[in-house]
Amino acid sequence: LSFLKTTDPAILFASIFYTHYFEEGFSDIGADPGAPPSPGDVQLGDELQIAAGIAFALNDRTSLSMSFSQRFIDETEISLPGLGTAEVIGSDTTTGKFDLGLTYALTDRLSMVTSLGMGLTNDTSDYTFNLKFPYRF
Question: What Rg value do the Cα atoms of the chain yield, rounded?
Fold first, then answer.
């Protein structure tokens, strides 16, 4: 779900995402390769992500943006036949990231989008750099 509000020369945006993973069965989820197979089910934790930011138009081809995003991930659970269900310790996490971006319209259909992300939590990459060239057909 995304929201967008234009207030020339700025654009305000926000979004919220939810991801549910379905339980999946595996023929062997054991940690010891020499042991007999341990079939079981794995239920990855659900995710909730929120984000908000602002973009400023510098001219008709260039814009700067900044945004914040945070993601909450629930614990993963494993189920072994006859042993029940257990949570995987340390599999839940919260990540946070601050992004600075620059977009430049190379042509009417092709843009160059760059961003530098800075991790704000221990479970987030310290820095990320993205370079994209979206083309509009």
Answer: 21
**Model pLDDT, residue 35:** 87
What residues contact 60, with CB distance under 8 A and at least 6 apart? 105
Q: Is 102 helix (H, G, I), strand (E, B) or coil?
A: strand
pTM of the full predicted structure?
A: 0.78
Could you tell me the two tokens for 76? Answer: 């993963």
pLDDT at 98: 98
- Give which of 7, 1, 90 is closest to 50, Cα–Cα: 1
| Ranges in the chain, pLDDT < 50 | none
Q: What is the DSSP track for 111-134? A: EEEEEEEEE-STTS-SEEEEEE--
Edge-first strand order for the sheet with 24-26 is 24-26, 40-43, 77-80, 84-87
Q: What are phi and psi of 4, to 5 degrees?
A: -145, 135
Closest C-alpha among 114, 21, 137, 3 to residue 63: 114
- For the chain, domains (ranges, CATH) are 2-24+38-132 (2.40.160)
CA 134 to chain CA mean position, Å:
19
